[in-house]
Amino acid sequence: MDVLLDAIITVISLIFLAILGTISGVAVPGLFIAALAPWLDWIIPVRRKEPSRAPEEVR
Known about the structure:
Blueprint: H1 2-43
């Protein structure tokens, strides 16, 4: 019985750690990208789109 409870506790702990790992795998790089955004814009500027032209009216 003790072995079964140990296995259940281990599985619950691994699930919890997997959830934490997934959250930190998304959140931490997002923080770095937010901090690097001004430099990224300076290094690789955003391409400006040309203004859209209105279609010529039918005569």
